[in-house]
Amino acid sequence: MSANKSSGKTKTILLFSGVRREDAGNKRLLAHQCPVTDCRLTGDMEEAASADAILFEGSIAEPTRLLHKARPPGQIWVLFFLESPFHTMGLKEYYGKVNYTATYRRDSTIVTPYERWVQHRNLSSLPSSPSKNYAEGKTKQVAWFVSNCGDKNGRLLYAKELQKYIGVDIYGQCGDKQCPRGEPRCTNMLRNDYKFYLAFENSNCQDYITEKLYWNAYQNDIIPIVMGARSEDYRKTAPPGSYIHVDSFASPRALADYLSLLDKDDSLYNQYFRWKNTGEFIDTKWWCRLCAMVHQPFIDHHQQTVTDLDSWWRGPGVCVAPKKGQRWATWRK
After folding, report:
1. What one-character DSSP code corresponds to residue 160?
2. Catalytic residue of the set 47, 57, 62, 83
3. Positive or negative, the Cα torsion across 190, 195, 254, 319?
């Protein structure tokens, strides 16, 4: 759509979980500089029958009476997820009623990743090492900022085991160091002092790659060590050659041995930064796309609703978790 082009009618999008005052109306759309801004975001449930679209967030735990009513003709229902299947509710109440799924999963109706990397130049055309030494001045090895000590993938146990063989500084409630994430002094410390960052998700699920990779590691010129989605998911999402996946190693000790090798060799360390200046991270402008979509004639929307949502969202193979006593080397198999 061209700038500010629409059907001529302001569309109402009801956010079932509510909307912040600073985002109400079209404020969020204006803030994102959307090409289509004549949508109104509201959290007023009194408008459920008249809204053009309703956005249900997967973190809502309690079924609503609204789900037991017929969807008004022409109204669009969107199911929106940012959390993994381990941290979202059962979806039987939504069977046969949702028009769109909007999640970080690449097989969603509307793909809403935390970030999107777009490659412009091939690494093969670049020098073998970047011009900048990204190891310069860094005297510490591994950092991790973490506040949620519960997980579905054993990430804390893995980090504690890794800590036996290489320097791992854990900040927050799960460690013995404190530095509030997001404070400039902590960000500067991470960027200037550490060579590696544990970009560990709380669940190992398909395509589940969050801000831990993009904002904590890449923005701070630090090599991310990743745990969460499968290796093939990272290959399709992250800049090539920019991260280290725990699945590539038989044990935390084997990973520590490799990190120690990189720590001692600036040339090898810098190989993980060849991707710099070969592409860009882009904002996929989810709210802009949602508003533009609602302005499309209803006949353009998927008339078929999604039936067995749970099989798609949390069916076999979507997520994996270690069994009690199982070694890290085998639990992904």
Report:
1. H
2. 83
3. positive
Rounded to whole angstroms, the Cα distance separating 196 from 202 reads: 18
Q: How far apart are CA 164 and CA 259, in angstroms?
A: 13
**pTM for the full predicted model:** 0.88
Per-residue pLDDT of the chain (333 residues; tens, 9 = 90+): 344 554 568 999 999 888 888 888 899 999 999 999 999 999 998 898 899 999 988 655 455 667 767 788 888 999 998 999 988 888 888 888 888 899 999 999 889 999 999 988 887 777 667 889 999 999 999 999 998 888 889 899 999 999 999 999 999 989 999 988 778 999 999 999 999 999 999 999 999 999 999 999 999 999 999 999 999 999 999 999 999 999 999 999 999 999 999 999 999 999 999 999 889 999 899 999 999 989 987 655 555 567 788 999 999 999 987 766 555 544 444
> Under CATH, to which class is 117-280 assigned?
alpha beta
Our measurement of the distance from residue 86's CA atom to the centroid of its chain's CA atoms, rounded to an integer in Å, reads 14
3-state secondary structure of 32: coil
DSSP 250-301: SSHHHHHHHHHHHHH-HHHHHGGGTTTTSEEEE---HHHHHHHHHTS-GGGS
In DSSP terms, which residues pair with 264 in a beta bridge? none
Residue 11 CB contacts under 8 Å (≥ 6 apart), including other chains: 38, 39, 40, 52, 53, 291, 294, 295
| Residue 83 designated active-site | yes
Of 7, 146, 151, 99, nearest to 307 (Cα)? Answer: 99
